[in-house]
Prior knowledge:
With 210 residues, this protein is α+β, with helices and mostly antiparallel strands. It is built from five helices and eleven strands, in the order ααββββαββββαβββα.
Amino acid sequence: MTNPDLEQVRAALALADFDVLAAQRLMAPLPQALRRSNQRSSTTRQASVMILLFPTEAGLTLVLNRRSTNPHDVHSGQISLPGGAQEPGETAIETALRETYEEVGVDLPIQIIGKLSCLYIPPSDFEVQPVVGYLTARPIWQPDPIEVAEVIECPLAWLLDEKLKVIEEWDWNGSKMNVPWYNVQGHKVWGATAIILSELEQRLRRILGQ
Length: 210
């Protein structure tokens, strides 16, 4: 497996001629709209997530969370990137940083190296801004037990391994839906998290010539 380095990630984020929607759709549940309906009258809610990269023996690695079980959380138990809703007066980067420090307890300063494209999530009417950050060393995780049940380290190379991608047919609210997901240590990484990671994956493939 190819292990992308930090300069290749920077180059991937800087690609100008890149079909974002095509990259996102590769890991999007079908059928599902990735754009907001014109019939919605309210303002889209804003959120940010952090793709936090750090070096390990497996190469550049990112962190995922398994959310704690919570009957009031529709995403309870799912795998996600650190992040959450923007608070009044915050920028997207400020939100991603705050949520990352709160959720996984990073003990090192985070360098911001770029962003991915915003993603609209129809069920919650959120527009999510993915921010990409970097740590110079592997941190000591101190997750918030109320929000995070498990911290999962995912080498970037895993995103490029086709054997770790699965498509299943799920029953969803009485309808059939084809759901692609990344198999990360036996966890199903799907939905918005997979769609965001798919954009990063396809950008890296362009840079790596894959």
